[in-house]
């Protein structure tokens, strides 16, 4: 795991937030009251060479950066260069660490916030116009992105819509717990594959009103629909970051691009089959259908190609992301018995018996459980930070940031720095609880596990609710203990545990 020194030399802020942004004219010399504004090239960073820029830093044997350890790279950059770090791996890239600077970056957001991500997936989809209208919600920018986002988000982000899925989610999680008891799970097994199956089952039900029967013995086979769907989601996500940095796939179909294409094709197949069955067999609106797909089909400005794209995006984004996030939460909870006991005490009050059903009221009252999720996301967010593609010039710490710069906010590293968080390496959920003696007024732009603004995770409320229900059910049933060593991250677009998720499960008698 990333080892961060608890002693460090802080970097003084050269500008307050109020002076971070300056107005300027293209026809006169730019000033901000502190002297001439410096160029982007003057921002500290690794040496850049013609043609390759700083890409050599990621090359095997030559560079000291690892594309699957971006958290470690970010820490090295911070220690070497400070709060702003420039790279040029084919594009102008700026790493931002200070939460006030991160806030400044997001205050520049255009009406349609843009990012340079999922580039190869965008290429793949836009070359299949018979399947897709666009590159999808994850890779599209501009007005077309907003058309998709504004239409799809209605039932993703509405609190009442999210609450409608509590009963079905709890039913599946309860079924999952019974399956664990039936197979008598042991600490010799990696728990992550089990969480993948659980989250596939939950998202398929919530989004498509579809059961994959992932817990059945038939679906354990590697050639089953659930196994191949889980593999295709991982195959899509795992190569995106490397493909974003590369260019050879534009010239010919590299093995990594082929993996992405094959994975996308399988998710298309599954999504299309589900969609066509729904369209053919449900010609009239089903008023009892609260699934996301049911709501999509009622939107007048969407056609079936838009819906297929969104279904593939959901399968890509929901299975691995929620499973990994839950894994890290279980890691922290199981290593801190006093935290787990406080969780259990709260859960026991809310669920006096194991067969008590979850409700929206119970979820809202699980305050300590939800603070544990927030604290886990501070230490192990979904990704290392948030990306933006600048759509205008602006000034940050006396530097002129050009239009077209890729900015990455390094929230994961910053959330582990003592100048922003007390005892940053400790798992302390109380820091999020108002009224607690350990409560901290943490900068709102320090921990952004679901992004920011209109480009933030569309399924945030749903994901947090699902993780809460999973943790409540597992802690209600078992006392958990961490068996493995220290858990780090593998940065495959989203942060994946770099070792098996090894837990011991001791049944509770209450």
From TrEMBL:
Binding site for heme: 457
SUPFAM superfamilies: Cytochrome P450
Alphabetized Pfam families for the sequence: p450 (PF00067)
Signal peptide stretch: none
Entry's Gene Ontology molecular function annotations: heme binding; iron ion binding; monooxygenase activity; oxidoreductase activity, acting on paired donors, with incorporation or reduction of molecular oxygen
Keyword Heme in annotation: yes
Cofactor(s) needed by this chain: heme
Keywords on record: Heme, Iron, Metal-binding, Monooxygenase, Oxidoreductase
Family per record: Belongs to the cytochrome P450 family.
Protein name (Swiss-Prot/TrEMBL): Cytochrome P450 CYP302A1
Protein species of origin: Helicoverpa armigera (Cotton bollworm)
Lineage: Eukaryota, Metazoa, Ecdysozoa, Arthropoda, Hexapoda
Designated gene of the protein: CYP302A1
